[in-house]
Design a protein that fits this description.
Largest sheet: 2 strands, parallel
Radius of gyration: 12 Å
Number of helices: 1
Mean pLDDT: 90
Number of domains: 1
Low-confidence stretches: none
Strand content: 25-35%
Number of strands: 2
Structural class: alpha+beta
């Protein structure tokens, strides 16, 4: 999707809050293409 919309697919990052934070860690464990991952909790 990113590459088709003028994004740089070689600079892949993901962020997630609470349950989404768990998804960040799971995705990071299975994707060698991921360059950055941030799981965050607390106040918004």
């Amino acid at each position: 999707w990113a590459a088709k919309n003028h994004g740089d697919a070689k600079r892949l990052g993901i962020t997630g809050f609470c349950w989404g934070g768990r998804i960040v860690w799971l995705y990071a464990a299975h994707s060698s293409q991921l360059k950055a991952g941030v799981a965050w909790y607390g106040r918004i």
